Structure to design on (419 residues):
């Protein structure tokens, strides 16, 4: 019998387990997959590193800074800005503090007026003065409404904010809470968006390696949870003093019957190999023309060369939602769009993989984020954590794990806010 069983070895479960193990508790993590990581997994295919869906670590995430050894992750940053597809060309949007020249040169280029760009600078200044707590507790509306209230023109909303924020929250309608927009906008300004040299899975791997040997049991699907233990698929019964359900939101709802099932944000990621990068720099490209299907694209091997074997480039194209097309059909429409962007070189690209992710993020509109943090203690001996308890992000998952561990230990020294 263990002191605590944690169901799920995603970031939330791993952070929870680490916190409990650090306080001397005997923890067993049960994971149905073949490796820890949950939604942060990386496949190695012919020398390419394919993250299961494009994602980045924001180095300013407070919990990630606290819990991870960034140096060992070998983090490689993206350019602080983006290339926006606009009127048949590409316009560079740059962070004015980190790339003042790039920003100045493009004051009049790209989507939006000069006034819009001054409004972006004003917003950046205002958010940099607020604390993260203030941002997460501010009155909220949808992101679309917040942009309208800030006075942004339709041109910059559709040409920049929609693909940028829509890509982050997998939400092209911009229905997500304005708190998350402000939160992420602030964190982008404070740090970098980065990829670990060994792929995003290096993050959960590092956390898992810090647990006592044997603490994670793989290929162990929990079928039911009750007071004092769990039952695995196949019938095996495991007992514990307490159980923490650290699965995604829908599975947590099924196992506990005590948390709401969050609506899903879905995404599709298509990878190509190429002889050379169409970009030649570590920058994100956004579809400011709204023609799709690709919302954003990057070349991970331009960010971290280890993502591709020598002499090759890895291209990652993200489509929001899951189009009703098979791989060949999707590739055809994706390449048609990218041929407009990059010309005939795309004819030499080879498709490596397609990832369709029906539940990538829990939807977090204002109604869901009424409480920036949802309760982690369900009843005596039963706790829950995961990104559906906090902000839907790496940060939210990690901090929710520590919060659940603190609640379980009956400690009031755990994080009392999303930070
Ligand atoms: C494509 C994509 C892009 C993203 N982009 C970003 C980004 O750029 N930046 C960012 O901060 N965040 C991003 N995120 C979100 C981030 O990855 C997640 O918020 C975070 O990884 C969630 O961690 P978690 O521990 O809460 O849940 P999960 O990672 O879902 O972990 C839950 C674990 O529980 C296991 N499990 C489930 N049911 C059972 C069961 N019955 N028995 C045993 N085990 C079970 C699962 O296998 C899984 O390992 C993205 C996510 C995706 C998918």
């Amino acid at each position: 019998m263990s002191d605590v069983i944690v169901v799920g070895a995603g970031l939330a479960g791993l952070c929870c387990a680490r916190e409990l193990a650090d306080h001397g508790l005997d923890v067993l993590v049960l994971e149905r997959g073949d490796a820890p990581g949950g939604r942060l997994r990386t496949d190695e295919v012919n020398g390419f590193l394919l993250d299961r869906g494009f994602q980045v670590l924001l180095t300013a995430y407070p919990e990630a800074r606290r819990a991870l050894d960034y140096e060992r992750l070998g983090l490689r940053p993206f350019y602080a800005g983006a290339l926006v597809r606009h009127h048949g060309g590409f316009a560079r949007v740059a962070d004015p503090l980190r790339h003042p020249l790039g920003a100045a040169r493009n004051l009049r280029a790209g989507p939006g007026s000069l006034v819009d760009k001054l409004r972006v600078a004003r917003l950046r200044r205002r958010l940099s003065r607020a604390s993260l707590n203030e941002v997460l507790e501010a009155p909220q509306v949808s992101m679309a409404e917040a942009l309208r209230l800030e006075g942004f023109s339709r041109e910059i909303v559709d040409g920049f904010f929609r693909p940028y924020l829509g890509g982050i929250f997998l939400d092209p309608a911009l229905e997500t809470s304005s708190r998350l927009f402000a939160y992420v906008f602030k964190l982008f300004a404070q740090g970098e968006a980065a990829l670990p040299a060994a792929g995003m899975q290096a993050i959960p791997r590092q956390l898992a390696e810090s647990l006592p040997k044997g603490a994670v049991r793989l290929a162990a699907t929990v079928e039911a949870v009750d007071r004092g233990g769990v039952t695995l698929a196949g019938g095996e019964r495991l007992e514990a003093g307490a159980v923490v359900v650290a699965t995604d939101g829908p599975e947590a709802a099924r196992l506990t019957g005590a948390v709401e099932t969050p609506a899903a944000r879905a995404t599709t990621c298509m990878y190509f190999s190429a002889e050379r990068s169409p970009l030649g720099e570590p920058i994100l490209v956004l579809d400011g023309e709204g023609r799709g299907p690709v919302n954003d694209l990057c070349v991970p091997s331009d960010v971290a060369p280890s993502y591709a074997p020598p002499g090759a480039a890895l291209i990652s194209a993200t489509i929001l939602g899951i189009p009703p097309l098979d791989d060949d059909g999707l590739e055809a429409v994706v390449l048609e769009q990218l041929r407009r962007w990059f010309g005939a070189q795309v004819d030499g690209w080879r498709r490596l993989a397609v990832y369709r992710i029906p539940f990538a993020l829990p939807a977090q509109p204002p109604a869901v984020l009424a409480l920036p943090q949802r309760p982690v203690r369900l009843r005596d001996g039963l706790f829950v954590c995961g990104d559906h308890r906090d902000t839907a992000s790496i940060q939210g998952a990690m901090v929710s794990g520590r919060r659940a561990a603190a609640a379980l230990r009956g400690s009031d020294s755990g994080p009392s806010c999303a930070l």
